[in-house]
């Protein structure tokens, strides 16, 4: 049964489930599988070394699905930033009109994407209401509200989704989707009830047949508990939620040693390149890699098609079940 929310209508998708951008995971294989399953798949721009490589990846994805898909562009603080305008231009030139933006100072890139003809639909991910309201002023179409449960950059305010989503419903004047901690249809139903138009998932989609990462890592997720994530880099106000392993534990210990004041002391332990190797060599301890608290709820490695249809079924069933709790007063049995 198709859903009818602001997200499904605007993006032309069947199930209001988005696969969020994921560095070293969000390739055409995964994005096309999610879109073919009825959700919105997203290619992660910065997994491609150059804007030209991104063009090729977009073309590859188009050859794998006829359904809508998007591209994530993450703007991270860096001494030598990637050529973001060139990545955005590649997205526009290749005809992509759905973009997930995330990170710092997105104004100029949002302006560039909105100047395309027709303009891009922008889902902007943020972890605070303050940032959400700033993005509204920049003209984004949807906010992707990322609670403290989420994988990756959790922000510095530590507000979980039960509060963040309800607050969004109260004060955010544009549609939003719920991100962080979702893996099933019960979560989708809850998010819809809190005022969201759909959900965004990262960790759950990493643990699917089509995610192009080593099978051992998917099994590590299945074996993990909700307590198996670790927050690092708080000292530098760049807090990231990682899968708890030997390397993240070492990084945490070094960071929290009172003698550590400089980022360079912890840098080798949080290297993104070593994290990338984890996905290739299947050694979960080799480097740090991103995962959310939802690892504790993930118990299998389904195809994206099975996962998305299961989410759809569970959401419909659980919404009907809750609806059935509302009865006519005359149907309430008398007390014994
Ligand atoms: C391995 C991995 C890499 C990620 N990389 C990015 C990224 O490059 N850009 C981004 O905006 N979000 C990134 N995220 C965050 C996801 O897009 C999504 O917001 C997050 O996973 C939601 O939380 P969940 O994992 O509980 O579903 C990443 C998440 C994972 C698991």
Automatic annotation (TrEMBL):
SUPFAM superfamilies according to UniProt: Inosine monophosphate dehydrogenase (IMPDH)
Keywords from UniProt, A to Z, are:
Flavoprotein, FMN, Oxidoreductase
* GO MF, one example: nitronate monooxygenase activity
Q: Where is the signal peptide?
A: none
A Pfam family hit: NMO
* InterPro entries (UniProt xref): Aldolase_TIM, NMO
| Gene3D superfamilies named among the record's database cross-references | Aldolase class I (3.20.20.70)
Q: What is this protein called?
A: Inosine monophosphate dehydrogenase
Record the organism.
Dissoconium aciculare CBS 342.82
Upper lineage: Eukaryota, Fungi, Dikarya, Ascomycota, Pezizomycotina
């Amino acid at each position: 049964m198709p859903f009818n929310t602001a997200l499904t209508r605007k993006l032309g998708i069947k199930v209001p489930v988005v696969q969020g951008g994921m560095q070293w995971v969000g390739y055409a294989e995964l994005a096309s599988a999610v879109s073919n399953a009825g959700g919105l798949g997203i290619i992660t721009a910065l997994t491609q070394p150059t804007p030209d490589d991104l063009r090729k990846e977009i073309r590859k994805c188009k050859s794998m699905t006829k359904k809508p898909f998007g591209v994530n562009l993450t703007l991270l603080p860096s001494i030598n930033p990637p050529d973001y305008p060139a990545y955005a231009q590649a997205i526009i030139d290749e005809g992509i009109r759905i973009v997930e933006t995330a990170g710092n100072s997105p104004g100029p890139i949002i302006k560039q994407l909105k100047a395309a003809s027709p303009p891009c639909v922008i889902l902007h991910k943020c972890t605070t209401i303050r940032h959400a309201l700033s993005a509204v002023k920049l003209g984004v179409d949807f906010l992707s509200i990322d609670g403290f449960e989420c994988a990756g950059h959790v922000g510095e305010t530590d507000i979980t989704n039960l509060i963040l989503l309800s607050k969004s419903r109260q004060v955010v004047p544009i549609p939003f989707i719920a991100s962080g901690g979702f893996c099933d249809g019960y979560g989708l139903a809850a998010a819809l009830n809190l005022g969201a138009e759909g959900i965004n998932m990262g960790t759950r989609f990493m643990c699917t047949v089509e995610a192009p990462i080593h099978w051992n890592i998917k099994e590590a997720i299945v074996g993990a508990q909700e307590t198996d994530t670790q927050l690092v880099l708080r000292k530098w106000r760049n807090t990231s939620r990682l899968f708890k392993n030997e390397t993240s534990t070492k990084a945490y210990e070094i960071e929290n040693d009172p003698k550590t004041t400089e980022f360079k002391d912890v840098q080798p332990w949080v290297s993104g390149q070593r994290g990338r190797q984890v996905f290739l060599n299947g050694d979960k301890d080799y480097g740090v890699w991103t995962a959310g608290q939802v690892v504790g709820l993930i118990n299998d490695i389904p195809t994206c098609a099975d996962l998305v249809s299961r989410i759809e079924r569970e959401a419909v069933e659980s919404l009907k079940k809750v609806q059935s709790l509302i009865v006519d007063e005359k149907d309430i049995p008398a007390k014994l």
